Amino acid sequence: MNIAELQKLTDWLIDGGRSTTSPTRFMAECCERMVAAGLPLWRVGVFVRTLHPEIYGRNFIWKPGAEVELGTVDYHILESPDFHNSPLKIVFQQGLEVRVRVDDPQNMRFPIVNDLRAEGVTDYVALPLPFIGGTVNASSWTTKQPGGFTDEQLAALRSLAKPLARVIEIISLTRTAASLLDTYVGNRAGERIMGGQIRRGHTETMNAAIWLSDLRGFTALSDRLPAETVVDILNQYFDCQVTAIKNHGGEVLKYMGDGLLAVFPIDEYVGDEQQVCSRVLEAAQESRASVASLNYPIGDAVERFRFGVALHVGRILYGNIGGGNRLDFTCIGPAVNLAARLEKIASQLKRTVVASEGFAGVCRGGWADLGEFPVAGFSKAARVYGLADETSAA
């Protein structure tokens, strides 16, 4: 063991491992420094829980001479036999260290022993990584050294786990903040907020295609069904749109009851307005098909659903709006107002997809001119277009 190198490593961790630029690079450099200090590591794993609606945790796996593997697990891991029979379950739930010597018969209760033996591993130790907030995450350390880890090497791993946990906690908190912002306000808005746009008045103008939709008959639906059922229906209904919106370059900004507001940014300098609007139309057609196939069993009946979406293109004001220290990152402007009015017209016409003259003019083909309609709050009537393949339905 090289005590001087271990001290340098400890100092590097206390300093935040600032010579690295990413979590995977931090993991790689940390393990490489440990090996250089005399720790005979073969495989190292760091397992961190996260605050995410779909992802239970992330894992980082290092092996000498290989790229760090980054993986995720969903909440089903808690029900899997692999987790229940793993030393990591003890670490996560009890915060205890677990050592598994491959040649110790008592450790045969862990199925992982057979995998370790096949890999040539002689010793495995799982160490808790306690965070200041009280949660406990986990790390695993293996070696192929004959006889396993020595007492001195184990002591070194235990002493390094504490500063390592601090750095991982900082990285984890930063990622969690970004993930929560992404979950609740969207990726682009989250990036801006994390970048410092947190004051009222921090806004910018942006050219974008605008998507505004709602579920037909939602008021009557919510009046006759239990609230839990309505929430479940809404979640499935929004799933029909969000996947298509994200896959085609859009970002959901807001849910308003059964309403959904999304934007598809247009780069004016690249001149991709036509491409963006084409992708928006594709997303609308996919959502129309998904909602049409959505059915929900309620008692002996099956509920079917219809929705409407208005598409427009124009300039919007995008940023922080609100009062005091309670802000909302959203978009406003005449273009958004017109999209909202068009969505109401779509409902009146019993249309699924309608578009403004501006949107239909950019994304040509497949439209039927539905005529001009007075628009509340606007001095001029708006010409409205519907998809030609909905003519018979109208």
UniProtKB/TrEMBL annotation:
Q: What SMART domains does UniProt report for this protein, alphabetically?
A: CYCc
Membrane-crossing residue ranges in chain numbering: none
Guanylate cyclase domain residues: 209-343
A molecular function annotated in GO for this UniProt entry is: adenylate cyclase activity
Pfam families associated with the record? Guanylate_cyc
- Gene Ontology annotations of biological process type: cAMP biosynthetic process; intracellular signal transduction
PANTHER family found in the cross-reference section = ADENYLATE CYCLASE, TERMINAL-DIFFERENTIATION SPECIFIC-RELATED (PTHR43081), BLR2264 PROTEIN (PTHR43081:SF11)
Provide the protein name. Adenylate cyclase
